[in-house]
Amino acid sequence: MYTQEWMSSMQPERGMEDLPLLPRLETMVEGLPKSLMNVLDWFQENDAHVWIVGGAVRNALLGTEINEYDLATTMTPEAMEAYPDTIPTGRQYGTITFRNNGDSYEVTTLRTELGYNDGRRPDEVQWGDSLLVDLSRRDLTMNAIAVNVSKQTFYDPFNGYDDLNNQRIRSVGEPIKRLSEDALRILRCYRFMDQGNAGIWWPENQLAEALRTTKPMLSRIASERIWSEFKRILLGKQASKIVQRMADDGILKQLFGIDWLQHDLAIQLLNQLDGDDVIDRLVVLMRNFNSTECEDFATTLRLSGKEKKEFLFRHSKMGHVPEDMDSSIRIYAAVVGTWSHQHLQIEKLFAAHETWVSDFSEEDVQRCIDRLNRLKINFDERPLATGDYIMQQTNMTEGPKLGALKAWLFYEQIARNLQSLDEIDRLLCTLSWQTDDASHWPKLQFP
User: Fold this and answer.
1) Distance between first and last Cα of the chain
2) Is pLDDT of 327 > 60?
3) Is 207 within 8 Å of 170 (Cβ atoms)?
4) Using 50, 70 and 90 to split pLDDT, how confident is the model at 117?
5) CA neighbours within 13 Å on the CB side: how many for 353?
6) How many CB atoms lie within 10 A of CB 409?
7) What is the pLDDT of residues 61-116, one digit of tens each?
8) Cα dist. 317→44, 104, 260, 312, 314 in Å?
9) CATH number of the domain at 4-166, please?
10) CA dihedral defined by 283, 288, 289, 295, rounded to 10 degrees?
11) Where are the domains of the chain?
12) What is the CA angle 18-20-23, rounded to 5?
């Protein structure tokens, strides 16, 4: 383990120019959370070098929101654990999480990495003493900038700031080598192409070619990591163009074994969708695929049980709209729930562009939307007639027929907008429940 004397005497910033903080970096430093300043002070008190690196520096230079701060340090993981509140997040790779006043910061020891035979993680990690070497192993130049708060300087050995100014995505060093070290970087590159309100930044030619060349390595990445990254891509402000680029580059087929068209309508509509529900984005993306393909898609992505259930449920409603009648709209809303408003908006989007194949027009869907809004549906409505009530009124015993009658009464309650048990009583007298085959009785369903 390195001694404090050795750490204080090393010159980890050697080989790089000390640059005075740019105005936006000054603003970042002046606004650092007190909890982070406490952590930085602790490193200084323990004669260790420490820098803010990665996304926080990039976002500060872009003038966008900073969501988290990551640090790099000369201190080893063992030495960092002397801090009062830590979590060994990735100790074997040099990463320790520091906690202070409810905030968390990942701190990673300067390191060099040897071999990436699995395309996911280094075969060997060695603690280093050079910030330049540490920055040289990062993916993109925009992410290879470091700030020394105590010295009020920053380091940009790969000209990431120039790339930011020129809206250019460029790898640190040789692109294929960088992407091969961790195939998830392929998806990260597509995510960084989406710069939100600043538009789209396309990769320089060598990196663009490397993305297409290395895509088979995506098969080595855990599905959970792919879903985490793809989710962020889908929710981006420029998702339609980025996902289409992924389709054109063969990335989507590599990931999911499914082909999308050039100028694919479903992809084009991603950014016309209101809200930021990622399941809605998936539903739009997969709208024209069948249920089996969607099941496979969800399994491949390793969606959580809740996500998969909601995705398959919503997808099963696509391509269907209710009849433009009060009773049909009420039944529809009871089945689909509060998502019915969003569902109709999605169907309207597709109907506006698929007039030659759709069974309904944009105007048809709009009439349903208008009626749904007028009816002011109570989405929390529950059956008025309980099982006990039905047994008392009919002398029916417990069993499938009782359940079927309860479902039928609830169906009629919703369709006719019944509000009291007296109305249920009068309805029950008109239903042929004594002799009819219960398997044919209506129940709430859509479509």
Assistant:
1) 67
2) yes
3) yes
4) low
5) 12
6) 23
7) 999 999 999 999 999 999 999 999 999 998 888 999 999 999 999 999 998 755 54
8) 59, 42, 21, 9, 5
9) 3.30.460.10
10) 20
11) 4-166, 387-440
12) 150
- The type of residue at 184 is L
For residue range 156-171, list pLDDT tens digits in order: 999 999 999 999 999 9
Cβ contact 40:48 at 8 Å = no
- List the Cα angle 402/404/409 in 5-degree steps: 95
Q: Are 238 and 224 in contact (CB under 8 A)?
A: no
Side chain identity at residue 9, one-letter code: S
One-letter amino acid for residue 186 of the chain? I
Residue length of the chain: 447
Question: Cα(317)–Cα(344) distance, rounded to whole angstroms?
Answer: 10
Strand 70-73 vs strand 103-109: parallel, antiparallel, or unpaired?
A: parallel
What lies within 8 Å, CB to CB, of 99 at 6+ separation is: 85, 86, 87, 105
Place of tokens 């029950």: 428
Name the amino acid, one letter, at 340: S
